[in-house]
Amino acid sequence: METIGRINSEAKKWIEEIHVQKWALAHDGGHRYRIMTTNLSEVFNSVLKGVRCLPIIALVQLTFYRINSYFAVRHQLGMQRAKSGKNCTPFVDGKSSSNGIKTGRHEVVLFNRATGIFRIKTGSSIANRSKGGNVQVVKLKEHSCSCQKWQIFGFPCSHVMAACQYCSLDYKVFVQNWYSITTYKMTWDPVFHPIPDRAYWPLARETTFLPSGSMKRKAKSRPRSTRFRNEMDIREGHITVTFGCCK
User: What is the top-level taxon of the source organism (predicted)?
Assistant: First the structure.
């Protein structure tokens, strides 16, 4: 915060007026688990990519079928993982696999087996020998590691996995329930129902509104888009600068 203040005092003042629980991961009470951006809305935006300029009926239909596919595919994946005996989401399995590689290079010293206190010294990286040699303190009973990754992400870091390996414990018991395959399936459980042919629709009881004739399109071609471009439309590394004389 002090660094921000030295660069821009107004920015520091603006941030300080916002409660830390609203923007600091360290003070969110463990509710977000590594989520620091609006990526969820960006994911939804990517699902609907290319539908913005479609006619309203086509837009609604494509939105409906794409979201249905999104849910159906992931629910099926959850069912397959459950049948194969996998207890965690694909994301956690991937992270645990990469952490497991680091675990073999850690030096583990037991301090108290009853409370699960360990001293973990990280080994040097194969790719970068200058890294490593850091000391972390793991407390299994308190579900904490001094690196803070376990508390922030909700699943064991490589230091915790090394401690579990030392004690012959399954590290997956320390993964938060939100990453369980049961929760994963429940997330994608809602079912979308097919829309029958219009001939089978029930009669509408609502008042029928007729659009004004003055609002009807005069030209047959697609109208010119009036959407304003923003930072979401600018690809990193592909910024084009146009000068007035070039237009």
Answer: Eukaryota
> Which residue in 110, 106, 109, 112 sits closest to 158, CA to CA?
106
- Map tokens 């596919």 to a residue: 69
pLDDT tens digits along 68-125: 998 999 999 999 999 988 888 989 999 988 888 888 889 999 999 888 999 999 887 6
Residue 122 is which amino acid? T
* Burial of residue 151, with CB atoms counted within 10 A of its CB: 0-12 exposed, 13-18 middle, 19 or more buried: middle
The tokens describing 203, both together, are 């009669």
Domain regions of the chain by residue span: 1-32, 40-88+177-194, 90-174
Which residue, chain included where needed, has tokens 């629910």?
A: 75
One-letter amino acid of 100: G
Phi, psi of 138 (to 5 degrees): -110, 130
Q: Is the pTM value of this prediction over 0.70?
A: no
- Give Cα 18 distance to the centre of its chain: 23
